[in-house]
Amino acid sequence: MKAIVFEKIQQLSIQDKPIPALTEGDVLIQTELCGICASDLAALRGDVVDYAPPVVMGHELAGVIVDSRHPDVKVGERVTVNPMLSCGVCTECQNDLDKYCKNIEGIGHDIDGGYAEYMRMPKHGVDTGKLIRVPDSIPSEELLFLEPLGCCLNAMQETLFKDSVAILGAGPIGLMFTQLTKRAGLTTYVVEPQAHRRGVAETLGADHTFDTSPESVAHLQDLTHGGVDTVISSTTNNASVIALAFKIVRRGGCVNFFGLAPEGEELRINLEEFHYAGHKLMASWAFSRASLAAARQLLIEKALNFEPLLTHRFPIADGLAAFENAAAQRGIKTVVHP
Prior knowledge:
Elements: E1 2-8, E2 11-16, E3 27-35, H1 38-45, E4 55-56, E5 60-68, E6 78-81, E7 84-85, H2 91-94, E8 105-106, E9 118-121, H3 123-127, E10 131-134, H4 140-143, H5 146-158, E11 164-168, H6 172-183, E12 187-191, H7 195-203, E13 208-210, H8 214-223, E14 228-233, H9 239-248, E15 249-257, H10 271-277, E16 280-282, H11 289-301, E17 310-315, H12 319-327, E18 333-337
Parallel strand pairs: 11-12, 11-14, 12-13, 14-15, 15-16, 17-18
Antiparallel strand pairs: 1-2, 1-4, 3-5, 3-9, 3-18, 5-6, 6-10, 7-8
């Protein structure tokens, strides 16, 4: 089978690999689509280190079971995965905080993932509920968004909201946040430098969109009488984005630094100014089992519009071009397929 292999920082390759062999309790997933995630791009750049190359990346997948050695899994079932394979018994796992488990293995991070024609889900993952079965009514073009939607829902639960919110970035994550905040009844502003992404945000319900020019930022400040109640940064949290977040949040407002940050980026705060500004600063990442279940239900209900998000498809054999397309932020979401 063809697979996209992360060999080391700045080195990705297309390889011919054997179809994964199964042992008792394992299942084999045939990949239909797999989305390229910003975390994979960051790993390739060397900005994040929670990967164990060489490894087949890919964790935002839609697929079908084509071989099962597990008594509870049937061939033909449509599935995606919870990519965090945790121990299932520690205090963190028992409290639905699998991401803090000390014995975690990540699909597409530590073990081979979905940028391949086939992917093995080990018995332990099935036994701990990390195989997510879905109805046939959910197309693969929507199913691949279940995991990132679960991340957004987790952040929505953790973030402090009042009446207004600014979403920084209108990539796939920002556009899901846009729909979720509108569903929550919030006045939603989207800040995005690329015009075509601002257009999609408007299509999906954003009340106002802005580029990142000083004039647009000033307009946003005026429109909100000094700042929004909440900022969710769903883009790379570099120095300019961090500064922008503080410019457009009101005193006492909440900033969620949801996006990843470049290697070595630091947040420096004058504690006296912070004290009197009263800002609530936080970071949300990944998902819970509950938020993935909620994402599954939203997909079943057709509650969100994913059609404008999936803009580019590449065969796995053209995986290097797919990564280049995603890194260049062409369109919205880039996916690979067999």
